[in-house]
Give the backbone structure.
Amino acid sequence: MATPVKSGEKVDAVIAGASASGSVFAATLAKAGKKVVLLETGPDWQLSAATSRAGA
Ligand SMILES: Cc1cc2nc3c(=O)[nH]c(=O)nc-3n(C[C@H](O)[C@H](O)[C@H](O)COP(=O)(O)OP(=O)(O)OC[C@H]3O[C@@H](n4cnc5c(N)ncnc54)[C@H](O)[C@@H]3O)c2cc1C
């Protein structure tokens, strides 16, 4: 589960880009017990922007 990182907190990995690649790397490291920070410079988005309903 994602939780905010405190200022000065030590982490195992910092990944630039919450993209297809970056997100998978972050999830894999987190599942292995590593503390990971995922940085994203792009705009925020909602799940509804990435899904559609047939006929809607
Ligand atoms: C028009 C188009 C259509 C495509 N269609 C397909 C398709 O149908 N099927 C397919 O398999 N592939 C498709 N691709 C290719 C696919 O989008 C890419 O291969 C894939 O997104 C690459 O993923 P990535 O994780 O390497 O990088 P990206 O998806 O490019 O993500 C990089 C991320 O890093 C962030 N970032 C950049 N700099 C920083 C920084 N300094 N700090 C923090 N964050 C940063 C960016 O905001 C972005 O979110 C398409 C690409 C384009 C352009």
